[in-house]
Amino acid sequence: MDLSGKNAVVTGAGGGIGRGIALALADAGANVVAADIEETKAKATAEEVAERRVKSGFFRVDVRNSEEVGRLADYAWETLGRVDVLCNNAGVVAPGPALSVSDADFRWQLEVNVVGVFNGMREFTRRFIEQGGDAHIVNTGSHHSIGAPTAGVAPYVACKHAVLGLADAFRTEYGDKVKFSVLCPGIINTGIWDAGRNRPAEFGGAYEGDERNQKALTAFGMRPERVGRLVANGIQNEDFFIWTHPQDIELIEKRYNECRETLESQWPDGPDEEHKMTPHDVT
């Protein structure tokens, strides 16, 4: 997809990867609506987008709420005339040992990182199909989507596996009408370490992030602006996977090799006639 003159919506655009994506799309000539649960930050990103001499808008949205996502879509179509790209980027993390994760924090991460992505995909895919023409949806997953071995973020890892699964499932059902991608970033210098500032009261209210995590992201993280350019390139190339760190090839190979080795060990003679399965067997 040539992004020049196209119209995009980016969630979680108030900072970090979302802001990086919004600016990169604008640099490529796209008009952008910046959406975020923090309205003032969404507005700030929209102002930076406008400096690129393209149209911009901003909208406060809690992606957990499907009705709010619908209103975001209404606003985007009214503001831009049509929408061609959605970047489902909003996400949170609450670090801690898996056995210490509270029910509230587990559900909060699932609602933002999985339900929020599904809400965006369902709402915009439906509208893209009705609208016709080229359209593209990018879900922000993670290298955790393929099994990055990091302790202390079990719910987040589970969420990012689900994000990849949603992208693949939607591609299977609607890929002839809408293009789909999953962004799999490694360590990026963002403010996600302090995501707790936006934890709703129903899940325990706001809390301050651990500054040690901030220091780690600052020291080792890639700049979000670079990630944004990679996303813009991925959309233009219609890539399903968008990677930020080439060393993740080791994770891909590890997962593939483990699957292959265990399958060959358990089924040394390969599939037999009794256990062969065709697509018609899956319901």
TrEMBL record:
> Is Oxidoreductase set as a keyword in this record?
yes
- Which Gene Ontology molecular function entries are recorded, alphabetically? oxidoreductase activity
Where is the segment annotated Disordered?
263-283
Looking up Pfam families in the UniProt record yields: adh_short
Keyword annotations for this protein, in alphabetical order, are: Oxidoreductase
Q: Which InterPro entries match?
A: NAD(P)-bd_dom_sf, SDR_fam
Lineage top rank: taxon: Bacteria
Query: Which regions form coiled coils?
Result: none
- According to the UniProt entry, which residue ranges have a biased composition of type Basic and acidic residues? 273-283
Q: What family, per the record?
A: Belongs to the short-chain dehydrogenases/reductases (SDR) family.
Output this protein's name: Short-chain dehydrogenase/reductase SDR
Q: Which organism is it from?
A: Hyphomonas johnsonii MHS-2
